[in-house]
Amino acid sequence: MLDFKQEIAKMISKTIDMNENEIKEYIETPKNLEVGDYSFPCFRMAKELKKSPVEIANQIKDNIKIDNNIIEKLEVLNGFLNIYLNKETLVKAVLQEFDKQRENYGKSKIGEGKNIVIDYSSPNIAKPFHIGHLRSTVIGASLYNIYKALGYNVIRINHLGDWGTQFGKMIEGYKRWGSEYDLENNPIDELTKIYVRINELCKEDKTVLEACRENFKRLEDGDKYCLEIWEKLKNLSLKEFQRVYDILGVSFDSMNGEAFYTDKMPEVVEILERKNLLKESQGAKIVDLEDKGMPPLIIEKSNESTTYATRDLAAILYRSRTYDFDKCLYIVAYEQNLHFKQVFEVAKLLGIDKKYTDGLIHVPFGMVRLKTGKMSTREGTVIKLEEILNESIARAKKIIEEKNPDLENKEEVAKKVGIGAVIFNDLSNSRIKDEIFDWDDMLNFQGETGPYLQYIYVRTNSIISKIENIPNIDNIDIKQLTNPVCIDIFKLAYLYNDIIVQASEKNEPSIISRYLIDLAQKYSNFYNDNKIISDNAEESKARIYLTYMVGSIIKSGTKLLGIEVPNKM
Ligand code: ARG
């Protein structure tokens, strides 16, 4: 598609001593679109050119040879050169590109040949899949879609928490009270009860805590009895997790969890030892990170059992060799910021190629809070994700029953709406923000929600289903689409690919969420003020095509978030 920024940069470059691509970098989209479609700030070159920003902006304005096909007019405002595009050219460019690409509009191939590993979801075996893991799952799944849309090769890894001292505890609890609990029918709830109970006992009795640590050590040494219990707990848990993944429509390329790295950790210890990086501290082996301003990273505990961090280091080695990644993203709550900072630092010390250590990225996100406060497995105050999803579906169903009792496939629509609401709620704000869970907000059909996007899509779809053929763009009178409201929609449509790229660069699906809400609201305003299909054939044709395009982008964008749209609701 026509690259307006590039064209503008080309014109500007002929008036000042600065190269085209650098100029392009500087060109921005003003927050307030009333002051122009693009803006070139002249502050940074003021010093070098020994002129005020206003003078520079005027100099460009006076000397530039405008291609009227691209630029409609220029204005100087407070050191900015504001640029207004030729509206017809904009509309035409978008229409042509969209018409060519249709459901692929916005996608590209910039990632071809590059490998992205995404480590996400990663719940812990024998513990509930809770609302905190939902965020990781939903963000990770969306980033997968986003990178895919840009042509990257993406590897989805569920780094299951299936190893570690908590298994020492689970095994101890299971040994003591396993037969008292109904593990077959309700495994995770019952295992959670055991886990809460054994934790309490550990607090009271240090010898029990010691026994738990010992169990994990035995597990690592391959003790048959311990391994058998571990295997059993793992299979019971995976079955329950799979139910949630099925509801969400999420899948993985690898389920290699922490246990997978048992036999890969000695290499890490060996390298660290060889490089003289391991220190003894109270019987444990640590890597000192004081000069990096961080606490030491424990590689081996005093009873020789390994740690979460050591497994992450082994995983980095393994993933660099297996996937030759350009980026390896860890979608994990910000609570683990320090963990990843330490691990990435030690990965460098290990001597792993810079290509890989540069690509290690912790993608943190905020906590999910209930109105009553934080959740913790240890205290047993957890809401299970499966319950949340089912509750959301039930609530969506109730709303549909009230609003549209005759709708066909109510179950299916309720499922899309209920799950869409939960997913969108998770992705609607910048991920680092804590999220408060509120049913009424997230299911509000008029708010900035998943159901709202679905509702606007359904409106576009209902118009499109009334007509026989999508109009041919060659027969569309462009002037019908150059009024301010339509232009705003076309400007957004023009930016769609840019938005996807930005979302990938910042690993931030909310960039797409915000964009879609903006697009849907603008279209909704247009729809409320204008008849789409009227007696005026020229007008109708143009507006139908606009409707079709907006619906298509909403559908494609929500899909990037992991949300499906119903055809009716
Ligand atoms: N299982 C961990 C947890 O629930 C998350 C694991 C994240 N991935 C990783 N490679 N450390 O907190």
Topology, element by element:
Elements: H1 4-13, H2 20-26, E1 38-41, H3 46-49, H4 53-63, E2 71-77, E3 80-85, H5 87-101, E4 115-119, H6 131-149, E5 153-157, H7 165-177, H8 187-204, H9 206-220, H10 224-248, H11 265-274, E6 278-281, E7 284-287, E8 297-300, H12 308-323, E9 327-331, H13 337-349, H14 354-357, E10 360-363, E11 368-369, H15 385-403, H16 410-427, E12 435-436, H17 439-442, H18 450-464, H19 484-506, H20 510-529, H21 537-561
Parallel strand pairs: 4-5, 4-9, 9-10, 11-12
Antiparallel strand pairs: 1-3, 2-3, 6-7, 7-8
Helix pairs in contact: 1-2, 5-19, 6-19, 7-8, 7-9, 8-9, 9-10, 11-12, 12-13, 15-16, 18-20, 18-21, 19-20, 19-21, 20-21
Bound molecules: arginine.
Q: Care to describe what's here?
A:
With 569 residues, the chain is α/β, with parallel strands linked by helices. The protein has three domains: 4-85, Arginyl tRNA synthetase N-terminal domain (Gyrase A, domain 2, 2-Layer Sandwich); 115-264 and 307-374, Rossmann fold (3-Layer(aba) Sandwich); 385-561, Orthogonal Bundle (Isoleucyl-tRNA Synthetase, Domain 1), CATH 1.10.730.10. 53% of the residues lie in helices and 9% in strands. The protein has 21 helices and twelve strands. The protein has helices at residues 4-13, 20-26, 46-49, 53-63, 87-101, 131-149, 165-177, 187-204, 206-220, 224-248, 265-274, 308-323, 337-349, 354-357, 385-403, 410-427, 439-442, 450-464, 484-506, 510-529, 537-561; strands at residues 38-41, 71-77, 80-85, 115-119, 153-157, 278-281, 284-287, 297-300, 327-331, 360-363, 368-369, 435-436. The protein has a four-stranded parallel beta sheet with strand order 5-4-9-10. The protein has a three-stranded antiparallel beta sheet with strand order 1-3-2. Strands 6-7-8 form a three-stranded antiparallel beta sheet. A hairpin with a 2-residue loop joins strand 2 and strand 3 (80-85). Helix 6 (131-149) crosses helix 19. The protein is globular. The chain binds arginine. Arginine binds next to loops. Arginine binds at residues 119, 122-124, 159, 161, 312, 330, 332.
